[in-house]
Every structure is written in structure tokens, then in C-alpha cells.
Specification:
By secondary structure, the protein is mainly α. It has one domain. Helix content is about 75%, strand content about 0%. The chain has twelve helices and no strands.
């Protein structure tokens, strides 16, 4: 692998992490007029406007016998998106985005239990610190009511994100990344249209909210997914995963700037602990062959 390819992969990963972080804050800003579930639905539908033509251009719109496999991925995408947005809505962007990054810890546990991967004690220590960091950023000692529900939503999102990584790795052995992403969002969109029929969508949400939703669908979904999968073709997934851990910090800064959701010093400490710990697990605990780019 040339240094040029690795550098381009790193830059694409940073681009994806930045777009996910900033558009996460943007999504939280429209929750007053559009529910988290509706934002997740709209995100999927708008993303298809970019993903389908791109996949067609790349010759990747064939199902190739993957109907039920892609349908299952669609369910996974729908769950991870809506639980992520629930967490952002109930906890704030910084804490909500940080909890989802427990997913690599869950992947690590799966690989130890199922694939019998040996993990150094140092990496397990980093995993424990990641959990402690989440406790700091969510101020676990103060949780009650909607905050406790927000943590539950965040943990559900982390589990769904971990299963996405594992299942995405399985699909990647047979199908192309753009094919997986496009069909995943096709089925996620179908699921959302069944759960939330399009004719029940609130029509009086205002021009600003519509602009935000379009930005979330294109710059917060289609573009970073394409960038992330391209990065995985250019750089080792361990490196990609480490750079991707910048997302919760970016999300926290974006939320402070755009929404006034400033974090307290202990919460910033939690963000830093999680980023460092998860980066350690991604780089030293997971094999380089494992996918590691986030879906947020």
C-alpha cells in the first residue's frame, strides 16, 4: 500500500466522521418539529436520491441473490438510526454520539467469544476505560427519567451498530460496498414507509427544517457512507477505525456551536477517555480485516 493511498483513506475517513458529527447536531436541531423516527425515515429516503444513481453508475444495483440478506441489513439500519437519534434527543448530541462508540467494545467481545481471538490485557483495560468514559459523559450518577431512557437508547444503538459491523463484514465477502449500502437503505426506507406512511408526514414543518433534512440525507448519510467505504479500500480498517473515533468529539463541538449544548468539564473528560480508549481497541484489539467505519 502506498503512502498516498493511505493518506487519501485517512482524509476520507476524517471527512466522513466530520459530516456525521456535524449533521448529528443538525438532526438534533429539528427534533422540535420532526420526531427522531421521522428524521431517520427522511434520512434514508433522501440518501437514496444519491445512492441509487451512484450504484447504477457503478453497475451495483443487482441483488445477486441477496434479497433477504439486504432486507435484514435494512432492519439493522433502521434500528441503529432511530435509536441513535433517540439518544441524541434525550441526552444531547455529545453524550448520545459518544455512547454509540461502545460498539467496537461489543465487537471485541463477540470476536473473543465466537472467533476465539486472543486479546491482550491492555486492550481489555482500554475497553473498561471506554465504559467509564461513557459514565462521565452521560453523568450516570445523575440519570433519571428521560435521561435514563436516553442511555438505554444509546446502548441499543451501540448494539445495533456492532451488529452492523459484524454483518457488514459478512456481506462484504460476497457483495460490493456500494451494493450493500444502497440496498440496505432501500430496504430501510421500505420498512419506514410501512411503519410511518408517507401521507402522514407533517407538511407544515417549515423551509428551514426541510433544508436541514436534505442536508442530513445527502451530506450526513449518502456522502459519508460512500467516503467511508472508499476509505476502507485505501487504508487498513484499524487505521480507519481510529480516525473515525473523532466523530463524538466533533459532534460535541458542533452541538455547542450550533445548539448551545455545551458540555461540562467532566463530560469533556468522558469524551476524551472514550475516544482514546476506543481508538486503542480499534487499533490493537480488532484485526485489520474487520470493518470499522461508523454509520451514525
Amino acid at each position: 500500500m502506498t503512502d498516498d493511498r493511505a493518506t487519501r483513506g485517512a482524509l476520507l475517513t476524517l471527512l466522513a466522521a466530520t459530516l456525521w458529527g456535524v449533521t448529528g447536531a443538525l438532526a438534533a436541531g429539528v427534533f422540535d418539529v420532526v420526531s427522531p423516527a421521522r428524521v431517520a425515515q427522511t434520512r434514508s429516503l433522501i440518501a437514496l436520491v444519491v445512492l441509487v444513481p451512484y450504484a447504477a453508475h457503478r453497475g451495483a444495483l443487482r441483488l445477486d441473490g441477496g434479497l433477504w440478506k439486504f432486507a435484514l441489513l435494512g432492519v439493522n439500519l433502521a434500528v441503529v438510526n432511530v435509536t441513535f437519534y433517540w439518544a441524541l434527543d434525550m441526552l444531547g448530541v455529545g453524550p448520545g454520539a459518544t455512547i454509540q462508540f461502545l460498539a467496537p467494545i461489543l465487537v471485541l467481545g463477540w470476536m473473543v467469544l465466537v472467533h476465539r481471538v486472543r486479546v491482550r490485557l491492555f486492550v481489555w483495560g482500554a475497553a473498561a476505560f471506554a465504559v467509564m468514559g461513557v459514565g462521565l459523559v452521560t453523568q450516570a450518577w445523575m440519570l433519571e427519567g428521560s435521561a435514563a431512557l436516553g442511555v438505554a437508547a444509546g446502548l441499543m444503538s451501540a448494539v445495533a451498530y456492532a451488529s452492523y459491523l459484524l454483518y457488514g463484514e459478512y456481506l462484504g465477502k460476497t457483495y460490493r460496498p456500494v451494493q450493500i449500502t444502497t440496498w440496505g437503505f432501500v430496504f430501510a426506507s421500505v420498512i419506514w414507509l410501512v411503519i410511518l406512511p408517507i401521507w402522514t408526514f407533517p407538511t407544515s414543518i417549515g423551509t428551514r427544517a426541510w433544508i436541514d433534512l436534505v442536508i442530513i440525507g445527502i451530506l450526513g448519510t449518502a456522502v459519508p457512507f460512500i467516503a467511508g467505504f472508499t476509505a476502507l479500500r485505501l487504508a487498513p480498517s484499524g487505521i480507519v477505525g481510529v480516525i473515525a473515533t473523532a466523530e463524538p468529539a466533533i459532534a460535541a463541538v458542533a452541538a455547542a456551536a450550533m445548539l448551545g449544548q455545551a458540555l461540562e468539564p467532566t463530560q469533556w473528560l468522558g469524551v476524551v477517555v472514550v475516544v482514546v480508549a476506543v481508538a486503542t481497541v480499534q487499533r490493537l484489539g480488532l484485526p485489520d480485516a474487520h470493518p470499522a467505519s461508523p454509520i451514525a
